[in-house]
Amino acid sequence: MGFSVLLAAYTVTLLLAFTIATLHRSIQSKRTSATALNKPAPPPGPAGYPLLGSLLYVIGPLRHNPHRSLVALAKAHGPIVYLRLGLTRAMAVVSSAAVAHEALVKNDAALAARLVPDNVRALSYGATSMVFLPSSDQLWRQLRVLIGAGFSSSQIRPVLERRAGQLAEHVRACAGSGRPVNIREAVNGTVLNVVSNVLFSEDVVDLREQQKAQTFKSLVVPVLEEWSKPSVSDAFPFLAPLEHLLGSRRRISTHLAKLFRFFDEVIIEKRLACCEKHNDILDVLLSRMAMAKLTRQQITTFITDMFIAASDTSTVTVQWAMAELLRHPEKMKKVNAELAEKLGSKDFVTESDLSELPYLHAVVKETLRLHPAVPLIPREVVADDMSLGGFHVPKGTGVIVNL
Ligand code: HEM
């Protein structure tokens, strides 16, 4: 049988499934509308198109700067907006501080699950990643405690101060030789090395050797790029087999496998082969693996999580802070004056200096407000009767809090 015949057979099957699903849904909605009369109404939202719902809006304007497009939606419909995406996915977008508080504090348990997009399920990533596990999960709790201890200020202070020293040295070397400083590369390399040293006591980037930095970046960036794209199968689950075969899920599996292999072969394997103790998070993880409390795959996923969560967030925030200061030279003058007054000839800011630098502190906070690196917090309703802002939000609905 040729590929075209297979494709035709597949298309017919899909159309059939699609028609049955639509019929089934319309019968079911007639049945449930009768029983749901006593429930509060769902939140308001755009009418959307038949079958597609608001999907075109999501893959159109929402794709770039989604948090800004969602603000426009909130202005039209209110602090909680209901969106139907394709056949199965329903979302409630929360845009006010009061409803966000209601969602994340009062309804914390009802919203314990994270939204897991289909492309995050590649290589079972979503099933073991702490970024996607519900906060009620045992593995999530175990890893959160570990992060709390491993990234406590006393643990990371020496690592931070050494990397800050290296960054200052790098900036000075660039200035001395008249080379421009690539802020993105320098900050990203520093952040990655802080995380890698807290996790497994090694640098993954050499600030002087951009080539080495590129090797690590070439493993992380493609995964982040693929994950940032919406996946068709989230709105139309019956298209999942096709997407797994030809779409982004297949590409993510390839990129993720390379990243997993790097951490497993280059970091974990090397540590297992040596008997020296480093007193770092990897030592703790491997001792738990020896007690059968963690698997090697869970350790690899955890390390991947940490790099993915850390790499772009801090870098983009510093880039924005510098860009805003360049756009507002009078504010840049104030920061410089404060640093000169409080630090004198000291090379770089340490944690203990921060309380002496209220203006710099305010610049960081304002940057996080104007350009949040993670503007949307996604959750999924796991309780039967949840209401938000006075509206009924059914179980299974995705809830997005727009910070
Ligand atoms: C400007 C920098 C950063 C910002 C704005 C930021 C923001 C966030 C936000 C909004 C979340 C989601 C929280 C939730 O769903 O309740 C998150 C989760 C997370 N972040 Fe960050 N983050 C930053 C830097 C970092 C760094 C440097 C690391 C690692 C050292 C990190 C590790 C994580 C982890 C592991 C999670 C998942 C935690 C969980 O499941 O509870 N983040 N971050």
UniProtKB/TrEMBL annotation:
The record's listing under SUPFAM superfamilies reads:
Cytochrome P450
Q: In the record, what terms sit under GO molecular function? A: heme binding; iron ion binding; monooxygenase activity; oxidoreductase activity, acting on paired donors, with incorporation or reduction of molecular oxygen
* Annotated InterPro entries: Cyt_P450, Cyt_P450_E_grp-I, Cyt_P450_sf
Q: Which Pfam families match?
A: p450 (PF00067)
Family recorded in the similarity comment: Belongs to the cytochrome P450 family.
The protein, known as: Cytochrome P450
Report the source organism: Miscanthus lutarioriparius
